[in-house]
Amino acid sequence: MTRKNGAAAVAEPADTGAEAVRGALEGVASHLHPKVSWELDDHPVPTGREEVWRFTPVHRLEDLLTSPATGVELDCALRLPEGVTAGFVEGDAVRAAAVEPPADRTSAIAAANAGRARLVTVPADLELDEPVELDFTGTGVDRPAYQQTIIGVGAGARARILLRFEGSARIADKIDVRVGAGARVDLVTLQDWAPDAVHVAQSSLLVGRDATVRTVQASLGGAVTRMLERASYEGAGGELEQFGLYFVDSGRHVEHRLFVDHNQPLSRSNIDYRGALQDEGSLGVWVGDVLIRKQAEGISTYEANKNLLLTAGARAESIPNLEIATGRIEGAGHSSTTGRFDDEQLFYLRSRGIPEDEARRLVVQGFFVEIVRRIGIPEVAERLMAAVQRQLDAIAPDWGAPE
To answer: Which ranges carry the SUF system FeS cluster assembly SufBD core domain (predicted)?
Structure first.
């Protein structure tokens, strides 16, 4: 078992550090968070040797990186509570409504080729009892799909928003979510794709002053999934919790790259992602990066990632990062753990007459239940655990722990 655990040391930046922070404010790129731009030419076709692409199987994304002009949109079924509106915006209105420009090649292609963006609006001060649901369904992988979705939640609103992806597709996607001052939002994304699906997406979140946002990202299907998840703050006092779970098997690739930009004082973030991996050639990638700017005094942040290896041959890459430009913070830390089954847990269950195969299933369920319970949304928890159970049901009876 390998472990990394600790909090980064903090200090007042030297002149070069201050210059780096000012550069970031002006949009200058770093190796961890490249420059954002609406111009496709600002995002060269990756070779796979770049830092932000080095784990990604770019050879499996060729049509989503070279921008064929013809594509399709996914089917979308909307369930909108009373008061919530939906429509489409095009051209300059898309850029005006979005949180930020594209941050990588595939999201730039999505913006360039989608032609329009779906806009969902929750008005200010509206408190919803029912969730806003967007169910996206792919109908095949023969043609690439391009899509943009923009969600705006007004100041003081209360909302739960569920995005679900299923079926078969090869899609480049861009998602923007704006949360107004004092709003409380639960944002859940469930990727329950068919085994042949490919989904590469950028999800950008803007947390308003004194807003509270909780996100859940679940990747439980598909052949290749690459999620670029970015968050920043519009005002002081914003709070962000990000939970994630992923199940990787049968040679699949699942990659979550998180970037939290603490650009406002007194902001908070807490990240907890967990993955279970099995089968030869399967790869789970989690890269977390928290940037604490010089002006972000009094902030608190922690990022954690845990991976459970179910069989020999599966691999996990877990890389937490902290970039700190001020010592005047409440706290900042990170942890990463990758290992196999807990032998003591298995022994305990087997000593009570539970067969080994069932004992392993219970251990995996417990691994995920611990985080699902923290979500606090019963209907979402039920959906997630049902999806996890489907994954467990597909495990071969002779599965075993890595040697």
So the answer is: 142-367
Residue by residue, DSSP assigns 324-360 as E--S--SEEEEEEEEEE--HHHHHHHHTTT--HHHHH
Instruction: Output phi, psi for 325, to 5 deg.
Output: -115, 10
Residue 398 lies in a domain: no
- Dihedral angle over CA of 60, 65, 67, 70, nearest 10: 30
Rounded distance between C-alpha atoms, residue 259 and residue 230, angstroms: 5
Given a contact cutoff of 8 angstroms between Cβ atoms, the answer to whether 119 and 147 are in contact is no
296 lies in a domain?
yes
* Token duo for residue 298: 């009094």
Dump pLDDT digits (tens) for 140-197.
999 999 999 999 999 999 999 999 999 999 999 999 999 999 999 999 999 999 999 9
Residue 178's domain comprises 2-393
The length of the chain, given as a count of residues: 403
Number of domains in the chain: 1
What distance in Å separates the CA atoms of residue 290 and residue 319, rounded to the nearest whole number? Answer: 12
Q: pLDDT tens digit string along 323-359?
A: 999 999 999 999 999 988 666 767 666 677 777 777 7
Angle, helix 378-393 to helix 356-372, in steps of 10 degrees: 150
In a domain, 364, yes or no: yes
The answer as to whether 402 is a domain residue is no
